[in-house]
Amino acid sequence: MKTNFDFTGAGVALVTPFKEDFTIDEKALGAIVERQIAGGMDFLVALGTTAETSTLTEEEKREVVSLVLAQAGGRVPVVVGMGGNDTAAMIRKMEHFDPTGVSAFLVVTPFYNKPNQEGLFRHYRELARHSPLPLILYNVPTRTGVNLEAETVVRLAEASENIVAIKEASGILSQITRIIRYTPPRFKLISGDDVLALPILSIGGEGIISVIANALPHKVSALIHHALAGRYLEARQLHFELIELFRLQFDDGNPAGVKTMLHHFGMSANVLRLPLVPANPVVAAKIVAELQKLN
Predict the structure, then answer these.
(1) CA nearest to 74, candidates 47, 45, 103
(2) What whole-number distance in Å separates Cα of residue 275 and Cα of residue 219?
(3) Can you say how many angstroms the Cα of residue 135 is from the centroid of all Cα atoms in its chain?
């Protein structure tokens, strides 16, 4: 396992592939992980939003983490998603989690109960005090109903060295800019949106946790690595090449779009667990047409 993981570079929010009977497809998950590593991705994220984690049992969650760690075999860091809207319950989950081989937790903001900024600050501060691993904050207000504002992120970054980064998926570039500007240099901002990765990297962001990389890791890793090296013309060419797929992958919900891509490539069955369903035929056809245009 890499011991110097600095939470930068190209990461992927792994899907959970299912068989036609809705059980986890272990072989497909292993192949997807292998494809990420061969494609130059820097780290893997298991049990994020794209993994349909809310439909997995606790036993299945442990199975997914175990499978990803085994397939990665220490070649790249692995981050594990951890979410909930009960601080005490999350502390118990973290304290009972076996952190062996895992580099960090990706912790989404509490959902449904909609805490204010002080509540969010105290929630994450308590988690940081008890977590056996570093924390990556995860802000995705369109899903959770609450926005982790820049001032709160700065407070958290200054309050605990165990809070090391944020996956920012608010889409609010002014907020993202202020986080980059005012957090300590050790704190990393990672794009949570494929379409905003290049703009965010251009103002000091340091990576991505990507959805589309499940299907196109070579393209995403090249885009991110070009940008991080200051080769913006090359990065922009890849950004333009993928721009329609960035949009289409979410037109019928996530991970419906990227699972359409994986099915097209023969990587997994096009199966999601209810209440999610596969992309409708019109969107799926547009996705396939765009894939066929790629070099």
Answers:
(1) 103
(2) 31
(3) 13
Instruction: Quote the CA–CA distance of 200 and 87 in Å, as a whole number.
Output: 30
Q: Is the model's pLDDT at 4 over the cut of 80?
A: no
CA–CA separation, 251 vs 161, rounded Å?
Answer: 38
In the set 61, 124, 167, 286, the catalytic residue is 167
- CB of 127 within 8 A of CB of 89? no
Per-residue tokens: 9: 């570079």
> Which of 61, 124, 138, 259 is an active site residue?
138
Q: Is 167 a catalytic residue?
A: yes
Say how far residue 215 (Cα) sits from the centre of its chain.
Answer: 14
Q: What is the pLDDT of residues 175-224, one digit of tens each?
A: 999 999 999 999 999 999 999 999 999 999 999 999 999 999 999 999 99
Beta bridge partners of 45: 13, 79
CA distance 247 to 270: 19
3-class SS letters over 35-78:
HHHHCCCCEEEECCHHHCHHHCCHHHHHHHHHHHHHHHCCCCCE
Question: Measured in Å, how far apart are the chain's first and last C-alpha atoms?
Answer: 33
Mean pLDDT of 148-155: 98
Amino acid making up residue 112:
Y
Distance CA 294, CA 44 (A): 24
Its CATH class, for the domain covering 9-230, is alpha beta
Cα separation, 234 vs 22, in Å, equals 40
Task: Report the run of H or E that residue 188 belongs to, with start and end.
Answer: strand 188-191
Residues 60-72 have pLDDT tens digits of: 999 999 999 999 9
Cα separation, 217 vs 26, whole angstroms: 20
Q: What is the distance between the alpha carbons of residues 22 and 25, in angstroms, rounded to a whole number?
A: 8
Total residues belonging to the chain: 295
Print the SS3 string covering 151-181: HHHHHHHHHCCCEEEEEECCCCHHHHHHHHH
Does the annotation mark 138 as catalytic? yes
